Amino acid sequence: MKLPTDPVTLATPFFILSVILEVVLARFGKLKAHYETKDTAVSLVMGLFSTLSSLPIAGLSFAAAIWCYHHRAFTIPMTAVWAWVAVFLLEDLTYYVFHRLSHERRVWWAAHVNHHSSQHYNLSTALRQTWTGGVAFTWALWLPLSLLGFPPAMVAIEKGISLVYQYWIHTEAIGRMPGWFEAVFNTPSHHRVHHARNPRYLDRNYAGILIVWDRLFGTFQPELDEEAPRYGLVHNLGTFNVLRVAFHEWIGIGQDLLRQPRHALGWLFGPPGWSPDGSRDTSTSLKAQWTARQAQAELKAKQDAV
Amino acid sequence: MMIGLAAWATRGRGAPALDEPAARRLLAEEFPDRTVEALWLAADGKGAVAKSVDLALVLARMGDGYMARKLAWSEAAATPVRDGRLRLALREPGAPRAILTFAAWPPKDLPA
To answer: In angstroms, what separates the C-alpha of B71 from chain A's closest C-alpha?
Structure first.
């Protein structure tokens, strides 16, 4: 569904201009940004076809939202300021839940992984969007808002605002925002952590607009000066083929299901990296290994000091 | 147009060829629990293979970064070189193979 006031459509010229600006200014050393040709090409193609790939399922998600709204608990007016404040908070909380599920359950990670597949972190990375979000049915997470009584158009506008907000935080050009802003809002610094593959930073900072959800639910990790983020996946991709970028985790799930169908629930809803025999690495196991190495290094340092 | 712009922006700023210290640093980052017994750099500096007990640790250039994978040493050692290329089968949908430039393989200077 494309609304006449769709924030993403309105912001598209800004997206294009700001990427151009970031590339040019980085070239002349005026700001920090790293671009790589093939990587940028993949991000742009993923972004372009992401919009098209969402169309087939858009009718279904729209119909579901309308059905929910017809069975709503309350009638919430689109003209009331309090209603916009409420939908802002509830949509942002829904985004947090969606984003956390997208990282912590493999079937939804399969739809989200491509967004994290770049080894770079620049404005073009923000455009590296999923082609399979619709079929992963993550849009269903927003249906309770319509059941509650928020008009589907209102929810869609708020989702668009969130997406546009999250665009500008995909940059290394901005260091830290003022303290009060870093405390409340998602920022480039917080989101760099989210895109990092360092064990310390894995599965942290799921926020859309408000970082307060991560602080509330224990998933917040500040960016540390002593540990620069290394971007990408735990196991970085070995291809720039956009079809492989878009579908590799789905294919991996399919292969695992065919090989061991009796573990279907684990393959689908276990954390990414889950395997029946524990032979693969999950974020939890990688963090545990990292913590053990840190403890060992500290112990050795103490022994050496003695 | 934007892809062309990115190409222009990165012109002359390609990643340097991998040398031994850089390869060892990358391997330590990617495989912190493994000890490298021997290391062989690809002839064009775009990758490396290391032996770590029964595993081959592989680095292969991706754009200006690297991807890292491990596979059984026996399998890596048995892979032939064709046309100066060592094509290691990784068998992953997101990383089907690593292609490295080696004149000869397996290496003759294997650790005991």
So the answer is: 13
Chain B residues near residue A27 by CB distance under 8 angstroms? 8-9
What's the confidence (pLDDT) of residue A4?
A: 57
Give tens-digit pLDDT for A187-228: 999 999 999 999 999 999 999 999 999 999 999 999 999 999
Q: What is the pTM of this model?
A: 0.93
Q: Which of A10, A237, A44 shows the shortest CA–CA distance to A123? A: A44
**For chain B, which ranges sit under pLDDT 50?**
none
Taking each helix axis from N to C end, the angle separating A37-53 and A55-70, rounded to the nearest 10 degrees, works out to 50
Q: Do B96 and A239 touch (CB under 8 A)?
A: yes
Of A124, A244, A289, the CB nearest to B93: A244
Give the residues across from B68 on adjacent strands: B59
Task: Count Cα atoms within 13 angstroms, Cβ side, for B100.
Answer: 32
Flag residues of chain A having pLDDT under 70: 1-4
Contact A248, A202 (CB under 8 A): no
A23/B68 CB distance under 8 A:
no
Say if the Cβ atoms of A238 and B10 lie within 8 Å: no
- What ipTM is given for this predicted complex? 0.90
The number of CA neighbours under 13 Å toward the Cβ of B32 is 15
Q: Please tell me the predicted confidence (pLDDT) of residue A55.
A: 85
